[in-house]
Amino acid sequence: MGAGVTADSQGPAGGGALLVVGDVVTDVVARHRGPLAAGTDTAAAIRTVPGGAGANVACWAAHTGCADVRLLGRVGVDAAAWHERQLIAAGVRPRLVVDPEAATGTVVCLVDTGASAERTFLTDSGASLRLEPADWSDALLDGVARLHLSGYLLFSEASRALAAVAREAARARGVPVSLDPASAGFLGRLGVDRFLAFTERVEVLLPSRDEAALLTGLPDPADAAVKLSRHVPLVVVKAGADGAWVARSGALLARVPAAPATPRDTTGAGDAFSGAFLASLAAGASPEEAATAGCRAGARAVERVGGRPPTPG
Fold first, then answer.
1. Edge-to-edge strand ranges of the sheet holding 3-6
2. Are 154 and 196 spatial neighbours (Cβ–Cβ below 8 Å)?
3. Using alpha carbons only, how large is the chain's radius of gyration in Å?
4. Cβ distance 36 to 113 under 8 Å?
5. Which run of H or E residues covers position 28?
6. Residues 121, 106: Cα–Cα separation, whole Å
7. Using CA atoms in the order 305, 307, 308, 310, what is the torsion angle rounded to 10 degrees?
8. Pairing mode, if any, of strands 119-124 and 105-112?
9. Is 151 helix (H, G, I), strand (E, B) or coil?
10. Full pLDDT tens readout for the chain, 313 residues
11. Sequential DSSP letters for 101-136
12. For residue 107, which of 91, 119, 118 has the smallest C-alpha distance?
């Protein structure tokens, strides 16, 4: 186990915290217009920003009203202090394990600045998927009302084992667990059956439309949400500009429309939805109300460069 960069682990009296376990990475966002010019230069505006699906969810949950958000992640020595500062500034209380060997994960985000602001990721997971069971302590659940797992954890053997330990510890305490599949590309390589086996002890699933289609074989997001909700009690399929579909226990509860937005960068939009959705659930909202909050956060996210909300002040 690496050394830790740790914020005070004791939350406010009364608890009710959201604990996110997942990836913390450095995003290099390159915004270009039109096709990439193979074999030569393509002009782009390039920024380096903090990212990672798990870290983004935590930051958006804090930004949208969750008073106590905690994050367990793993980073390299190279960027540990920077990531800790960025998370604290966003209102998140991090517990970052510092990997003695691997560098912090890095994702190159290629963003087409056309109307769709669509993005392509080049991912070096680095330390982020080297989380392991030894990095876990059941004390991390003290005062926690919800546990959220980034699906990226399932894409390496060590972090998948850590995710299973965290999930079982949460269930032993009666803490509901949510999961975001994270990546259709990685999910396909992991295998649908292996992923669904992991979700047998999960209460909330937050897939994108592509991930839901991959998991069910059903292209229609409403049908996919209903099918998945026979396996996981509450499912919300996120579909960007098409809004979201909410299903519970085999029945479609609602289709929630997207909030209007002018996209600049769609990186982290799904993470923003998940963070706001979980913050709203924690505050007592219904799943449909929480999905509406998620759509609002997703709309705000696509109008910003990078996957994080603005920091306070």
1. 3-6, 92-99, 69-76, 17-21, 144-150, 177-180, 204-205, 234-238, 244-248, 251-256
2. no
3. 18
4. no
5. strand 25-32
6. 10
7. 20
8. antiparallel
9. helix
10. 455 544 433 333 334 899 999 999 999 989 898 888 899 999 999 999 999 999 999 999 999 999 999 999 999 999 999 999 999 999 999 999 999 999 999 999 898 887 666 778 898 999 999 999 999 999 999 999 999 999 999 999 999 999 999 999 999 999 999 999 988 888 888 999 999 999 989 999 999 999 999 999 999 999 999 999 999 999 999 999 999 999 999 999 999 999 999 888 778 899 999 999 999 999 999 999 999 999 999 999 999 888 899 987 6
11. SSPPEEEEEEEE-STT--EEEEEE-GGGGG--GGG-
12. 119
Encoding tokens for residue 253? 């509860």
Q: Which residue has the tokens 């994960």?
A: 105
Is residue 255 a contact partner of residue 222, using CB atoms and an 8 Å limit?
Answer: yes
Residue listed under structure tokens 């376990």:
21
Question: What's the predicted TM-score (pTM) here?
Answer: 0.91
Are 178 and 51 a contacting pair, CB within 8 Å? no
- Cα separation, 50 vs 52, in Å, equals 7
Q: Around Cβ 296, how many Cβ atoms within 10 Å?
A: 18
d(CA 40, CA 32): 14
* Structure tokens, 279: 């913050």
**Starting at the edge strand that comes first in sequence, how are the strands of the sheet with 25-32 ordered?**
45-51, 25-32, 105-112, 119-124
Q: Are 261 and 297 within 8 A, CB to CB?
A: no
Beta carbons of 211 and 181 less than 8 angstroms apart: yes
